[in-house]
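Q: Predict the assembly, please.
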Amino acid sequence: MSSHTSNEPLVGIELGALRKIRPRELVIRFAFGAFASLLAGCITLVFGARAGGLFLAFPAILTASLTMIEKKDGTSAAVHDIEGAVLGAAGLAAFAIVVEQALEWTSLGWALALAFGAWLATALALYFAAELTRRGIQRRRKGSPR
Amino acid sequence: VAKDAIVLALKALNGGLFVASFALAAAALKPKRFAGLFSAAPSVAMANLLVAVIAKGHPEGVANADGMLIGAAAFSLACLIGIPLVRRWRALHASAAICSLWLIGAAAGYLAIAL
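A: Predicted assembly structure:
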């Protein structure tokens, strides 16, 4: 992990950042999502639903965002983004497990809601654990005599 | 064939909308490491499962989710390897490498389990 520190809060919202997003950037993200979904659909038709399911975890948002983040906020911000994505990706496994089980006994709406909750809970738990550990180590390093 | 084409079109439209929405959510969050969680949000999964299960029933969704588990493992691995790549290369090249790594990992995982 990079050495960016922090006194900044663990979680924050900056709605003003949305005003800086250009329509072209949204169109690119839409295109990535549409392409990944189309690919998943085509693979399902040709090779079956299990093979198509692989593409439900295609890194569509990440690849669409990394270049734009680097351009706007620099390499360090892009590194931070992918560090977060590692934890979010672990949450995707929780999403897949929960949706697979939940579809056996409940409706689609509930299955998706439960699975999204599992993704969010896993990703947040890993993020807080990793971030608090990283900040603790940084504080100890700063406090120790050189 | 016509039904399959409609289902594909709906999946594509839905996928685009979900990915753009999650990307917007990520743009409003800070710090960047926290926003990064949403770069791996289940956007394509939710978009596809919604259409797939409505069109073809629960067994289709269960089989999709089974494959997704392998894809998710490949995603984590590709991101881990991708961290030093983003530091060393430009993000565009690193993104291409991450996609390739993901594809290799997902295909290898799928073949290992299927064969």
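The beta strands of chain A are 12-13. Residues 108-143 of chain A form the longest helix (36 residues).
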